[in-house]
Design a protein that fits this description.
Distance between the termini: 93 Å
Radius of gyration: 34 Å
Strand content: 5-15%
Order of helices and strands: HEEEH
Helix content: 25-40%
Strand order of the largest sheet: 1-2-3
Length: 100
């Protein structure tokens, strides 16, 4: 009985410490550059692909954020080289081999 009470208290403390970090995280609200049919003081914005009226908290539009160049990971391939001899590799006396 005491073990479950202690476990519940520990889980409760864990949730109370993690909750403010999740609440403090703001959604990224991007401005939408289009016709402004919003009321005075508001402008078109994009939240998760939905266009509505509000105040943006990002300085660039969502399309501009997606167009930002990202460096691709460089891959280095090892070249396998096969060295071939001009001499025949068969033993003397076998069929198909001749002395050069």
């Amino acid at each position: 009985m005491r073990l479950t009470t202690g476990a519940l208290a520990g889980v409760g403390l864990l949730l109370t410490t993690l909750m403010p970090a999740q609440v403090a995280a703001e959604a990224k609200i991007y401005p939408y550059h289009g016709a402004n049919y919003c009321p005075a003081g508001l402008q078109p914005i994009t939240i998760s692909g939905v266009i509505c009226c509000g105040q943006p908290n990002q300085h660039m539009s969502y399309q501009q954020a997606l167009a930002h160049p990202v460096a691709k990971k460089k891959r280095h391939y090892k070249v396998k080289r096969v060295v071939r001899s001009a001499r025949p590799t068969c033993q003397p006396g076998t069929k198909g081999c001749s002395d050069y």
